[in-house]
Amino acid sequence: MKEINTKQEYQKYVDKKSPNSPILKNCFNAFWVGGLICAIGQIIFGICESRGLDTKISSSIVSIILIFISAFLTSINWFNKIGKFAGAGSLIPITGFANSIISPSIEYKSEGYVMGVGAKMFTVAGPVLVFGISASVLVGLVYLIFNTQNIILV
User: Fold this and answer.
1) How far apart are CA 23 and CA 117, in angstroms?
2) What is 80-122 written as a DSSP string?
3) Which residues contact 21 (CB under 8 A, 6 or more apart)?
4) Which of these, 53, 64, 116, 146, could form a disulfide with 111 (CB 3.0-4.6 Å)?
5) What is the model's pTM?
């Protein structure tokens, strides 16, 4: 292998070895797969409402069914294939969150239900929850501080 001495030589080497990403194709795949997942959710919602269920219950049923489908597809290793094809389009919040919980559970099942599944279940989703909740508390405090004109201090 040829020795690399300068930044320009290194950049040429990296450009030669790195494949170009088909950005337009990836965006299109993410768009239509994400849209398909949303359309499936909307179809389930319409079926629930046509059966006389109110909006709140219909929304809950849609969430439960999409979580189940995502968990099932993760368990048979199809969700990863969809994710490789669709990228962020398959990570619509509810399906992506379900995948992030189920994947470590399946991976660490061999370590037992307590120390494997129970302890490792939130390894991917845990930081998202911690930082998401922390950020929402911080934003709430900032909002409270800057909108105190409506608060009467006694």
Assistant:
1) 36
2) HHHHHHHGGGGG-HHHHHHHHHHHHHHHTGGG-IIIIIIHHTT
3) none
4) 116
5) 0.66
* Residues 1-12 pLDDT 10s: 566 678 877 878
Query: Rounded to whole angstroms, how far apart are CA atoms 42 and 114?
Result: 37
Judged on CB neighbours under 10 Å (0-12, 13-18, 19+), 24 is: exposed
For 51-54, the CB contacts below 8 A with 24+ separation are none
DSSP secondary structure code for residue 18 in this structure: S
Helices (DSSP H) in the chain: which residue ranges?
A: 7-17, 23-50, 55-75, 79-86, 93-107, 119-120, 125-146
Token pair for residue 9?
A: 């030589």
What residues in the chain have per-residue pLDDT under 70?
1-4, 117, 124, 148-154
pLDDT digit string (tens) for 45-72? 999 999 999 999 999 999 999 999 998 9
